[in-house]
Write a sequence for this structure.
C-alpha cells in the first residue's frame, strides 16, 4: 500500500509573519520610536512631539503636523510592504527618504495596541484606526488637527517573553533618548519637543546645526566644538568635532550621518580615531558629529531593516578625505603642533619711530687680524693629590664585589671561594628563619615564597579585588562611607547619561556619591566614596555610566555589583612605585582574606603560583 505524503509547505498568516518581522524591526521601545519619528520626518513635518511614559512600555506617542493620510492610506499603512516611498526596484538605488521597506508599522501593530489619528490639510475630517496585535478593531471618522498622531500602547503585550527581556526603565529611556537625538541632530529645520512622564526633556526650535547641538547637549558645547567642512566630487563633509581636551571615557557622543540618515561605520570611525592619535589618551574617545552627503546612487542602504548599515561604493577615498579633513580642522584651530615656515617671529623687525635718524650701516674692520696666527690659551691648573693619599676606607666598599657580606679582614676568602661562602651564609641565614619576606621587582610585581612554591602577585589587581569586596560588604550592610567635597565638582553629561543618572540617583547614593541636578545635563557631585580621589572623579563617574549602559543585568543588587566593579577598577590604579615591606605584607594579607583572592572582579588573575614540583620539572 502506497502512502501519499500530504503537502507540508504553506503560507503563514499575516499576523504570524508580522510578528516574525517584528523580531528584527522592533527589538525594544526605542526601535518603535525610531521608526515613527522617521515617518514623521518623511511626511514633511515642521513640528514633532514625542511623548513617553514608563520608558515606552506603557505609551509611545508621536504627533506631527505633516501631510497626513487619506482614509484609504491610513488603513493601508499597516499592511506588510505597503509604502509610498518607492515604486520599482530601480528606486532602491536612488533613495531620498528615511523609510522605504514598508515593514515598520505592520511590525509595531503586531506586538502592541496602536491607535492612529490622521488628517490631510484639505480634508474636513480625519480618520481614526485602532489595531491590537495585528487584529483590526475599528476605523472611524474623527476630529483631529492636521497631520498624524500615532500612539503605541503596552508594547509586547502579546509576547510576554519579549516584554520580560526589556531592561530597567532607566536603561530603556536611555535608548529612546539616543534614537531621538539621532533624528533631531540631523533634521535641524524641524522643531522637536520630547516629553517624559509629562515633563519636557528636550525642546528645540528650527535652527542651524551648531545651535541644534548646543540646544540638545548643553551650552558648554558652544566652546568645545570645531567646525569641519570639505567639499569634493566624491563626498561633501560637514559637521563638528570636539576639542581633544574634552575627550570622554564614554563613546556616546559619536555620530555619523549620511544623506540625513544616522549610520554606523567602524571603518570611517577609525579614520577619525586615527586623526586624533597622540592628541587624546588611549582610553578616551573623541567627540564628533559628521554629516556626509553622497550621491544616493553610490551607496546601498538596503542591508538591514534598521537601515543603520550602509555600503559605500568608494569607501577608501571617503576614508582618506575624512581623515585629512579632520586633521586640517585640528591644525587650523591650532590644536596640533604646526610649523609656519613663511613667518619667523624672531626675525620680525619693528617699524622705526616717526622722527628716527636713518644712518648708513657701518662695518668695523681690524686690519691687524691674521687668521693663520696661533694663539696659546692659558690652561686651567687643577690640583692633583699625590698618589697613595686617597681614602681607601671610602673607595673600597664601592668596588668590593662582596660588599653585601661584611667579612672581617682576616676572614676575607681567597679567589674562587666567594660564591661558596655566599651560598653557605644564605643557607645558614634562611635555615634560622621561618619565612622569607616578600620583595618587589620592576617596582610592580610582588614575589613571595611559601612552603609550597612561589607566588607572583600584581599589587594593582590585588587592590582591585580588595576594594571590590570591601564595597560589596558596604552595600549589603548599608554602611558606605563617603567624603564630602570642599569644592563640589560639576560634570556635564550627555542627555541620555544625565537622565539615567537622575533615574538611579538612589543607587549612586548607596555607592557613596551625593549627587544633585545642577543645570541642563549637568550634575553637582557633593560627596564621593571614601577611597576615591578628587582628581579623577569625572573619569570614574563616566566609567561607571559606561559600564551600566553596556551591562546585561537588571535590578538594584546587580547595579550595585557593576558600580562596585567599576569603582574598584578605577580606585585601584596606582603608579609603579617601590613599596615598603610593610605595604607588601599588608596587600598579601588583605588579598588572601578575600572570598576570591585569585581573580579580579573582571575575571583576570591577581596572582600566579608556581609550585616547587613544577620548577623542579622545568630543570629536568
Amino acid at each position: 500500500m502506497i502512502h501519499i505524503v500530504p503537502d507540508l509547505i504553506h503560507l503563514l498568516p499575516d499576523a504570524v509573519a508580522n510578528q516574525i518581522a517584528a523580531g528584527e524591526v522592533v527589538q525594544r521601545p526605542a526601535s518603535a520610536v525610531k521608526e515613527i519619528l522617521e515617518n514623521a520626518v518623511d511626511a514633511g513635518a515642521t513640528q514633532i512631539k514625542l511623548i513617553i511614559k514608563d520608558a515606552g512600555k506603557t505609551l509611545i506617542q508621536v504627533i506631527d503636523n505633516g501631510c497626513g493620510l487619506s482614509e484609504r492610506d491610513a488603513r493601508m499603512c499597516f499592511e506588510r510592504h505597503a509604502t509610498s516611498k518607492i515604486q520599482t526596484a530601480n528606486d532602491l538605488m536612488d533613495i531620498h527618504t528615511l523609510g522605504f521597506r514598508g515593514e515598520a508599522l505592520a511590525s509595531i501593530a503586531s506586538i502592541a495596541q496602536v491607535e492612529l489619528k490622521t488628517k490631510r490639510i484639505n480634508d474636513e475630517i480625519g480618520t481614526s484606526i485602532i489595531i491590537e496585535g495585528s487584529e483590526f478593531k475599528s476605523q472611524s471618522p474623527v476630529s483631529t488637527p492636521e497631520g498624524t498622531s500615532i500612539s503605541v500602547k503596552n508594547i509586547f503585550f502579546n509576547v510576554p517573553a519579549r516584554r520580560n527581556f526589556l531592561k530597567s526603565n532607566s536603561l530603556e529611556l536611555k535608548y529612546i533618548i539616543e534614537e531621538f537625538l539621532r533624528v533631531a541632530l540631523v533634521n535641524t529645520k524641524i522643531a522637536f519637543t520630547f516629553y517624559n512622564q509629562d515633563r519636557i526633556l528636550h525642546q528645540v526650535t528650527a535652527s542651524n546645526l551648531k545651535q541644534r547641538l548646543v540646544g540638545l547637549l548643553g551650552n558648554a558645547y558652544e566652546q568645545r566644538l570645531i567646525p569641519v567642512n570639505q567639499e569634493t566630487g566624491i563626498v561633501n563633509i560637514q559637521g563638528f568635532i570636539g576639542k581633544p581636551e574634552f575627550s570622554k571615557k564614554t563613546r556616546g557622543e559619536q555620530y555619523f550621518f549620511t544623506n540625513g540618515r544616522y549610520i554606523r561605520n567602524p571603518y570611517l570611525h577609525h579614520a577619525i580615531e586615527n586623526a586624533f592619535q597622540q592628541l587624546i589618551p588611549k582610553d578616551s574617545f573623541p567627540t564628533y558629529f559628521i554629516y556626509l552627503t553622497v550621491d544616493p546612487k553610490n551607496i546601498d542602504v538596503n542591508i538591514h531593516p534598521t537601515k543603520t548599515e550602509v555600503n559605500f561604493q568608494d569607501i577608501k577615498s571617503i576614508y582618506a578625505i575624512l581623515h585629512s579633513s579632520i586633521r586640517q580642522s585640528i591644525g587650523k584651530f591650532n590644536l596640533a603642533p604646526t610649523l609656519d615656515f613663511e613667518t619667523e617671529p624672531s626675525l620680525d623687525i619693528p617699524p622705526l619711530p616717526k622722527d628716527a635718524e636713518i644712518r648708513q650701516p657701518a662695518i668695523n674692520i681690524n686690519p691687524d687680524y691674521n687668521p693663520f696666527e696661533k694663539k696659546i690659551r692659558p690652561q686651567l691648573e687643577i690640583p692633583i693629590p699625590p698618589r697613595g693619599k686617597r681614602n681607601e676606607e671610602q673607595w673600597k666598599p664601592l668596588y668590593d664585589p662582596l660588599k653585601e657580606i661584611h667579612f672581617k679582614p682576616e676572614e676575607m676568602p681567597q679567589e674562587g671561594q666567594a660564591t661558596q661562602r655566599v651560598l653557605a651564609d644564605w643557607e645558614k641565614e634562611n635555615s634560622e628563619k621561618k619565612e622569607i619576606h616578600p620583595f618587589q621587582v620592576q617596582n610592580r610585581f610582588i614575589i613571595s615564597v611559601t612552603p609550597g612554591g612561589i607566588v607572583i602577585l600584581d599589587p594593582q589587581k590585588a587592590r582591585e579585588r580588595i576594594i571590590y569586596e570591601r564595597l560589596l560588604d558596604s552595600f549589603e550592610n548599608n554602611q558606605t562611607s563617603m567624603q564630602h567635597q570642599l569644592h563640589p565638582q560639576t560634570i556635564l553629561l550627555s542627555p541620555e547619561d544625565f537622565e539615567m543618572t537622575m533615574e538611579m540617583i538612589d543607587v549612586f547614593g548607596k555607592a557613596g556619591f551625593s549627587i544633585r541636578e545642577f543645570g541642563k545635563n549637568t550634575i553637582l557631585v557633593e560627596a564621593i566614596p571614601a577611597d576615591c580621589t578628587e582628581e579623577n572623579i569625572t573619569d570614574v563617574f563616566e566609567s561607571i555610566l559606561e559600564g551600566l549602559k553596556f551591562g546585561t543585568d537588571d535590578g538594584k543588587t546587580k547595579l550595585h555589583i557593576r558600580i562596585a566593579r567599576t569603582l574598584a577598577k578605577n580606585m585601584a590604579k596606582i603608579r609603579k612605585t617601590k613599596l615598603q615591606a610593610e605595604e607588601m605584607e599588608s596587600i598579601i594579607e588583605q588579598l588572601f582574606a578575600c572570598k576570591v583572592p585569585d581573580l579580579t572582579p573582571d575575571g583576570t588573575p591577581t596572582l600566579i603560583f608556581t609550585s616547587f614540583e613544577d620548577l623542579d620539572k622545568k630543570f629536568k
User: Anything to note?
Assistant: Residues 336-350, 377-392, 394-430, 552-557 have pLDDT under 50 and may be disordered. The first helix runs from residue 14 to 25. The two ends are 76 Å apart (CA to CA). The CA atoms of residues 363 and 369 lie 15 Å apart.
